[in-house]
Amino acid sequence: MQIYTRKQSMSKLLIVGTVAFDAIETPFGKTDKIVGGAATYISIAASQFNVESGIVSVVGGDFPKDFLKQLNEKNIDTSGIEIIEDGKTFFWSGKYHNDLNVRDTLATDLNVLADFDPKVPEKFQNTDFLMLGNLHPSVQMAVIKQLPNRPKLVVLDTMNFWMDNTWDELMEVVAKVDVITINDEEARQMSGEYSLVKAANKIHKMGPRYVVIKKGEHGALLFENGNAFFAPALPLEEVFDPTGAGDTFAGGFIGHIANTKDISFENMKKAVISGSNLASFCVEKLGTERMINLTKKEMMNRLIEFKKLTQFDIELS
Amino acid sequence: MQIYTRKQSMSKLLIVGTVAFDAIETPFGKTDKIVGGAATYISIAASQFNVESGIVSVVGGDFPKDFLKQLNEKNIDTSGIEIIEDGKTFFWSGKYHNDLNVRDTLATDLNVLADFDPKVPEKFQNTDFLMLGNLHPSVQMAVIKQLPNRPKLVVLDTMNFWMDNTWDELMEVVAKVDVITINDEEARQMSGEYSLVKAANKIHKMGPRYVVIKKGEHGALLFENGNAFFAPALPLEEVFDPTGAGDTFAGGFIGHIANTKDISFENMKKAVISGSNLASFCVEKLGTERMINLTKKEMMNRLIEFKKLTQFDIELS
């Protein structure tokens, strides 16, 4: 049972995406099946903010109920996570190369995800914000269609796999969102342009007013027609596991927006800093471990580091 | 003949490096022999600032005197450029791949550079600042030894070639400088560390108090023991030719420092922004063309773009 202490002013944030098992191998360690998935990382990151979030997803009977309880304790509603008792949870396994920038997918077992028919719980049908985590674009579209009113902001995360295999469905959903977050190679693939400025301009024309290009250890770029903002990644002594960093970035981004309810470009700048900030924690340990235990104080302290890292005074003499 | 209107307050900046011919091939165009070289790019970039600079280098009789005159018109003293009338100027030829991040060297004809014996003109022996452009470390060391007093700041640029072939000589000169500028791969090679934070820490121990790691289109990082600052590269619609961008960065860096005479970490931040700013122009045309014609107004306007690109307000609530 979940107890909500929702303030009048608290935004609702609906998150659609996978809740999954991952098995990860990095040069620094190897996990057995651990909990992962886009919606997992997004929701945990967003829980750092004063928002009422809910997940729409599907898991099998093998998924640990305790983990759902952990999410509930972070004020994340899991009533939209369908549990198919005689099914198995989506499983992804990957191995990172030495520099952590390249990974091989070792296994992708769709399991219950293969027939996923998303259902938005009634209490989130009037959600203020919608975060569409990386998933089949027709699932993302099905969620958009279930909402009677358009949310204040719809953010879409996707990847090259959907560009390769479901281009038309992807374009339909891309046309309906305000913000798209993709990595640099995906932006180039999607636009056919090498220059990220030109790529963003083309992607704007496909629908999204805001284009966020994630560059991993090289930071992230935010584009709005003619405006650009750059959030660096924090230079870290150790990166243990990049899994979930992009989803955590998205969660920090939408979490900040939902908390402040301000969708101006000025505030989007802070949202990408917030996303980059949270992603910098995510990679410090394997899986969700670091994010589950992250405190608000740690988050705020690292924001100060981001300020030091980027802010300068300049005289225009 | 050069006429100097040196103000009492104007810093002297001595620049050591190649003055050369380049032949460049990019996906966007191809040049015949054009003027290039580290000292050329550095000095032109630094000429945007209120400094009295002089070059120490060597060219052959084939080098265009007109180009030296162009430098003189930018208040760059070329009396330290030895002209060996019966010799040929250093020649480098390279071809960039489609993404401009990788290049193949097609030719490196040392010519007069093979026996280069640098001589610091008397009027620069009391230089305030010393910029050691990418060259054989024993040439860089010979210049340091000719200066009776240590400059306020000595900046060294180098590359993997010297790490591979002249490690011991390189370490000797690295131990004597305040700032080193190298790219990310070179920082990793030099330190044996993949993490740039760890790499910088190791390089600090080799001598330089400040470590600047250039990441090309991904910007530049400045490290001082425990402090870090990041300057992005400006996202550009078109990049035509990266040749000289690293040297131009170094010239913008030392030009700002020499102009302000302030070697604090706070001012170094502005110096890396200044370097990144000037490098963003350099790549817009082939060779030195863009830099030769760059106005101070264009430079200042683009600084505003850098500010927009990086500055944000954050509430630490």
Q: Keyphrases for this structure?
A:
24% strand; five-stranded mixed sheet; alpha/beta; 15 strands; globular; homodimer
User: How many beta-strand runs of chain A?
Assistant: 15
**Biggest sheet layout of chain A:** 10 strands, mixed
CATH level-1 class of chain A: Alpha Beta
Shape of chain A: globular
Largest interface: A-B, 39 and 39 residues
Span between termini of chain A: 62 Å
Strand content of chain A: 15-25%
User: Can you name the CATH architecture of chain A?
Assistant: 3-Layer(aba) Sandwich
The average pLDDT score of chain A comes to: 95
Radius of gyration of CA atoms of chain A, rounded to a whole number:
18 Å
CATH superfamily of chain A: Ribokinase
Helix content of chain A: 25-40%
Quick structural gist:
The first copy, chain A, is an alpha/beta fold. Chain A is built from eleven helices and 15 strands.
Please characterize this protein's 3D structure:
The structure is a homodimer of 317-residue chains. With 317 residues, the first copy, chain A, is of the alpha/beta class. The first copy, chain A, has one domain: UDP-N-acetylmuramoyl-L-alanine:D-glutamate ligase (3-Layer(aba) Sandwich). Helix content of chain A is 36%, strand content 24%. Chain A is built from 11 helices and 15 strands. In chain A, strands 1, 5, 6, 7, 10, 11, 12, 13, 14 and 15 form a 10-stranded mixed sheet that branches. In chain A, strands 2, 3, 4, 8 and 9 form a 5-stranded mixed sheet that branches. In chain A, a hairpin with a 5-residue loop joins β13 (210-214) and β14 (220-224). In chain A, α1 (38-46) packs across α8 (245-260), α3 packs parallel to α5 and α8 packs antiparallel against α9. Chains A and B meet through α7, β15, α9 and α11 of A and α7, β15, α9 and α11 of B.
